Amino acid sequence: MIAVLVAVSAALVWRRDGAHGVWEILQHDLGLFGGILPRVLAGCLLGAFIAEILPHEKVSRSMGPESGLKGLLIGTAFGAILPGGPFTAYPVASALLTVGADFGATIAMVVSWTLIGYGRAIAWESWGRTSRCGGW
Amino acid sequence: MPDPSPAAAVSALLIDVILWGTVVALGAMAWRRGRPVFTAAVRGGSMDFLNIIPRIALGVVGSGYIAAIIPSEIITGWLGPDSGWLGVATAVMPVPRRRAGR
């Protein structure tokens, strides 16, 4: 369905802007895609290593269904220090679920990564301030 | 999209270094547990990578075309700073999606 939507959109761009318009967008997006690829690979490897080396019993005990508030706090702390973007966070979240973490603790990790992750803080402080949100 | 400032480029580099440093550290820990553990993890991660790449390619490349044909007034009206609760409701509107393969 997405592929059809993309094809229709590309055809509409072709009609409106010609081949040049289609090529320009393609070039830009391929550049973006190339920049993302190494991070996707890092995220997938990170998730796979975590799934292999984290002891299932310890994860179940500290972040499993019976972990309660402790599991939520551990998930929150882990999300806050997790580097990278969504292509890193979600494979890691998937790995945590694989090794026995509870949905609640995993969601706490993802929410913490989104809201208080240091990577985002650095990115928004340096990039947002200089290029978009000049006043804050 | 504006070019990132030097500070943004440095912070992106810093995050990449930390990310790959973490990957290398975890890889070393897996290696210490034995070559089969390391190989299984690398194989699993690589397969995840290969499986997810077509979807990301479609999303990243396709989003450029979709964004190009949507008039900016529509986006501003529905999701812009003055859209209020309608903007919030539009942003959280559930979108039906096909179940992922894994």
What's the pLDDT, averaged over the residues of chain A?
Answer: 83
Order of secondary-structure elements of chain A: HHHHHH
User: What would you call the shape of chain B?
Assistant: elongated
C-alpha geometry of chain A: elongated
Helix share, percent of chain B? over 70%
User: What Rg of chain A do the Cα atoms give?
Assistant: 20 Å
Largest interface (CB < 8 Å): A-B, 51 and 47 residues
SSE order and pairing:
The complex is a heterodimer of chains A (136) and B (102).
Chain A: H1 2-53, H2 56-63, H3 68-81, H4 86-98, H5 103-116, H6 118-132
Helix pairs in contact in A: 1-4, 3-5, 4-5, 5-6
Chain B: H1 6-32, H2 35-69, H3 72-79, H4 84-92
Helix pairs in contact in B: 1-2
Describe the structure.
The complex is a heterodimer of chains A (136) and B (102). In chain A, 35% of the residues are buried. Chain A has helices spanning 2-53, 56-63, 68-81, 86-98, 103-116, 118-132. Chain A starts with a helix and ends with a helix. Chain A is 85% helix and 0% strand. Chain A is an all-alpha fold and 136 residues long. Chain A has a domain at 38-132. In chain A, α1 (2-53) crosses α4, α3 (68-81) packs parallel to α5 and α5 (103-116) packs parallel to α6 (118-132). The longest helix of chain B has 35 residues, at 35-69. The interface between A and B is large, with 51 and 47 residues.
Short overview:
The complex is a heterodimer of chains A (136) and B (102). With 136 residues, chain A is an all-alpha fold. Chain A has helices at residues 2-53, 56-63, 68-81, 86-98, 103-116, 118-132.
